[in-house]
Amino acid sequence: MWIGANAIQGSGNSDANTDSDGWYTIRGVAPGTYTIKAHADGEGYVQQYYAGGHTSTNAGLVTVTGADAIKGIDLVMTRGAAIFGRITDAATGQPISGMNLSARPIGDDQMAWASTNTNGTFALRALPGGVVGVIVQGQGYLEVRKTVTIVDGEDVTDFNF
C-alpha cells in the first residue's frame, strides 16, 4: 500500500509503502503542513485520507515542525466496489481496445483509472458507495460521461458504453 504526505503549499511531497504488517515511515518530510493519503486500488481498497475520509476536501492536516517523528497517523482502509463493462463502436459493434476510463464520486477526487483490453472490457476498482461519474475517452472517439450509483461494496456489472 502506498502512503503519501502531500504539501498544502509548495512542493515537498514524500511517500512510502507499508510493510507486510501495515506499518509505514515517510522519511525526508520538510517542515510544513501536509495531508496524508493511503492508496491501494490494485488491492481493491478505497483511497483514504488521514482524519478525512476518501477525499482531500475533508482531510485532516498534519504539521511537521522539525526532525522529530510524528506518530499516530493511522488510516483504516475499506474495500471498495468495482465497475465492470465493455466499450464497443456504435456503428460496427466491434470492441474498442485502448480506451481510457476514469471514475470519481461526484464532486470528489478521481479514484480509479483503467483502459480497455483487446475485448473492449474494463474494470474500475476500489470505489466507495454513492453516485460515481465515469469518463471514457481515446482512440479518436468523442468523450462520453455516465453516472452510476454504487451501494457500498457491491460491484456494478454490464456498465457498457
Notes on the protein architecture:
The protein has no helices and eleven strands. With 161 residues, the chain is mainly β. The protein folds into two domains: 63 residues, no CATH class; 70 residues, Immunoglobulin-like (Sandwich). Strands 1, 2, 3, 4 and 5 form a five-stranded antiparallel β-sheet that branches. The protein is elongated and about 60 Å long.
Low-confidence stretches: none
The amount of helix comes to under 10%
List the domain count as a whole number: 2
State the CATH superfamily name of the largest domain: Immunoglobulins
Q: Per the principal axes of the C-alpha atoms, what is the gross shape?
A: elongated
CATH fold assignment of the largest domain:
Immunoglobulin-like
Number of strands: 11
Give me the secondary-structure category.
Answer: mainly beta
What Rg is obtained from the alpha carbons, in whole angstroms?
A: 18 Å
In the CATH hierarchy, the architecture of the largest domain is Sandwich
Overall pLDDT, averaged? 92
Highest-level CATH class of the largest domain: Mainly Beta
The largest sheet, given as strand count, sense and whether it forms a barrel, is: 5 strands, antiparallel
Report the sheet-strand fraction. 35-45%
Distance between the termini: 31 Å
Order of helices and strands: EEEEEEEEEEE
- Tally of helical runs: 0
